[in-house]
Structure formats: structure tokens, C-alpha cells
UniProtKB/TrEMBL annotation:
One Pfam short name: ABC_tran
This protein's record includes keyword DNA-binding: no
Protein known as: ABC transporter domain-containing protein
Protein family (similarity comment): Belongs to the ABC transporter superfamily.
């Protein structure tokens, strides 16, 4: 099992003192190579579950396992590098004042990967992007390109 949750929950307290669950006892399992999606109504907790799995929000209860190892918040090491989240609005992930290549260098450097234009180009071409995309500002790219 690549990723698994057991009774993953996040509760909040409203200003009135009322407790509510953004996610309540979520169990899921994802095998290596498998693609999974969370479906549900607006406000049903999909983003909260994703943020807990990515280590961005601390669960109120439950457990998360990665490659059989229970994770603890905040993530460190391999888990921090390997478990990521892509938000619905990718344009907020990029500095609007910089060309795409400048923003893309950051994660390469964090992962200690070569961050030259040719290195990044090799990766983005897999997604139908080209050299000219690297030199555009985020506002000059479509949501899909971002």
C-alpha cells in the first residue's frame, strides 16, 4: 500500500462554540501506480482531506500511512518531498512578477535536482509545454498550462 488513511478526521469549533467536522473518519487506500479522486458536494471536506494527506493541516484524529510507515505532523524528509498537493487554482502557485522558469527553479533546488533550462524543459515537454512557455509570465498561460 502506497498511501492509506484510517479514521482520518478534522474538527473545528465555530465562534458560537459548536463543534463540526470538516472530515469525519475517512478511510482510503491508494496502491502504487493507482490514480484516485475525491468526489463530493462543495463543503463536504475534499480539500480538508487532501490537505491533511499532504501534511498541510494537522488531523484532529486518525492516522496516515505512507509506504506502511505512520506519518506524524509535520512531515519531514522523503514524505515532505513525495507527498504533494496541486490546488484547484494553479495560478496562485506562481509569482506573477516572474517568468515561469524562475518559479520552476525553486522546487528543483529544494529537491537538489539540476535546475537549468534544459533540465526543466525535458520535464515540461512531457506535458505538451515548450521552451517559449518557460519565458512567459503566469498571466500569459492558460490554467491547463499552469
Amino acid at each position: 500500500m502506497l498511501l492509506q488513511t484510517e479514521k482520518l478526521s478534522k474538527r473545528y469549533r465555530r465562534s458560537s462554540g459548536e463543534v463540526f467536522f470538516a472530515a469525519n473518519e475517512v478511510n482510503l487506500s491508494i496502491e502504487a501506480g493507482q490514480t484516485a479522486g475525491l468526489l463530493g458536494k462543495s463543503g463536504s471536506g475534499k480539500s480538508t482531506v487532501g490537505q491533511m494527506i499532504a501534511g498541510l493541516v494537522k488531523p484532529s484524529a486518525g492516522r496516515i500511512f505512507y509506504k506502511g510507515k505512520e506519518l506524524s505532523y509535520p512531515y519531514k524528509g522523503e514524505e515532505r518531498r513525495k507527498i504533494q498537493i496541486l490546488f484547484q487554482h494553479p495560478e496562485v502557485s506562481f509569482n506573477p512578477a516572474l517568468p515561469l522558469i524562475k518559479s520552476m527553479c525553486e522546487p528543483y533546488k529544494l529537491l537538489k535536482k539540476p535546475a537549468g533550462e534544459e533540465d526543466i524543459l525535458k520535464d515540461i515537454e512531457k506535458f505538451g509545454l515548450h521552451r517559449e512557455h518557460l519565458h512567459r509570465a503566469p498571466m500569459e498561460l492558460s490554467g491547463g498550462e499552469l
